[in-house]
Amino acid sequence: MTVKEDFLYYLWKFGKLHQYHLQTTDGEAIQIINLGTQNHHAGPDFFNAQLRIGNQLWAGNVEMHVNASDWFVHHHETDKNYDNVILHVVWNHDIEIHRKDNSVIPTLVLESYSDKATLMQYQQLLNASKKWIHCETAFPALNAFQFENWLERVYLERLEKKAAEIEILVEKSNYDWEAILFRLLAKGFGLKLNSEAFFEATCTVDFSIIRKLSAKRGSLEAFLFGIFGLLSQEVTQEPYFDELKKEFNYLCHKFQHTISTTIPLQFFRTRPANFPTIRTSQLATVYHQQRNLFSKIIATTSLDQLYQMLQVGTSSFWETHYTFEKISPKRTKKVSKKFIDVLLINSIIPLKYCYDRYLGKPDIESILSLLRSIAAEKNTIIQKFTTNDISIENAQQTQALLELKKSYCDQHKCLECAIGNQLMQQSAFLKKK
Q1: DSSP-assigned beta bridge partners for residue 290
Q2: What is the reported pLDDT for 433?
């Protein structure tokens, strides 16, 4: 049978092995006093284990591999972090591993001591390769309380990843939080196809220019259209386009802003309401209507107030246009609540979390409460989970499920997942398979 290292971690961490009469490959008795703490970062797999091997009491680290020779595949022989390994736990013992002083590192072959029922459950869980996720048929058997707790933890993992990316931007901007909010919102207004183009363009701009231009909507709109590359095209017989281009060139000269090469914007495969022209005008409206937007956002925990701040429309020209060239029936193009939810989930809530942490008072409960008050997202991944008898009510759950699918299910990390751990211990799971 083929196993992965995560199965070895699982057996060791939860004591799913026959601990009586454990022996090293050299025949020395092993007594486990403390299994140690699993390490999820670089270095040995378990820290601070306590073992009695033969007559010697050891305290140190435990390293695990499917094959003993993986020690050299991973280049541990040159890494001083592995000098304090007191036991090498493997599934296949294909080579002896020596310390730098040439002494043999004691080795335990876990296959000889693993629980057979656990091994069978692991096989059945991982062999469901034709399914969307390995455990999709078993969701009705899950404990609801444990499932919700796990989703909360997985969402916090997702939030930490987003926060880490934002913190890099904050440091680069010399802690100009208003500037970071502007860039994150621009990225959000760009949506999937144009997010990077909008974000990269705003990163070339000193935010002080946006502050100065926010009082005059026409100037701000001209500047944003210009930095996003929307004025580089050739448009004939449209006075508004000519006005924007003239104003943008003037502002570049005034603020000594160098026009940068921009990532081409995408109109193809985009609904007209999401055209970059419309989203750019809406972004300009936000910063024209809301001065000190970051301070206002940080000061509120009210979802309704956030909607009021961000539910803006376009300038009058765009009420009758989607592009510069063609007139369309007049329509007020306001940002929808659904779109604002995307901004809140991906930009504003992670930034609020970062700022609270920067002040030394992270308020996880407020973050979770705000996210739970946002409607559940709708996409193909969430739809798949829904068809597997999962009740999904809010954005915290959908964000957690997206992270679960990406970082656990798709990576086959079933034994690092609380759901996989729960199923491994349920006889109902075996029967259902």
Answers
A1: none
A2: 44
